[in-house]
Design goal:
- By secondary structure, the chain is α+β, with helices and mostly antiparallel strands.
- Helices cover 54% and strands 13% of the residues.
- Strands 1-3-2 form a 3-stranded mixed sheet.
- Helix 1 runs antiparallel to helix 2 and helix 2 packs across helix 3.
- The longest helix is centred in the middle third of the chain and has 20 residues.
- The termini are far apart.
- Bound molecules: zinc ion.
- The site of zinc ion has 4 residues, from helix 2 and helix 3.
Amino acid sequence: MSRPARIEIADFGPCGDTLLLAEYDAEVDTIRVNGRALERVRAERGALEAELFMASAVAHEAFHRTQPNASEAAVHAHVRAATGSDPRRFETFVRVRYDRRDVEP
Ligand SMILES: [Zn+2]
């Protein structure tokens, strides 16, 4: 890999149960992390958990970038090894707690 992807914190809009935590856009070689999800983790679990969420999301998408044919199970194993935590902790927490009342006007 010649150089790292661009990393952005982006507003994905309110998504309810189908909340996307992060994505990799190969066309512009950019990893985007859901800023609303990041702020939810920070507000409810604190700055350290928010850092871990960010690290997990970037590690997840970076692995998709370098290993585009990897299964989600392989990606999760990579994130677990890279961050020392179960990547599903954030999926469950953010999705369950992401109440529509909090994000829709
Ligand atoms: Zn994935």
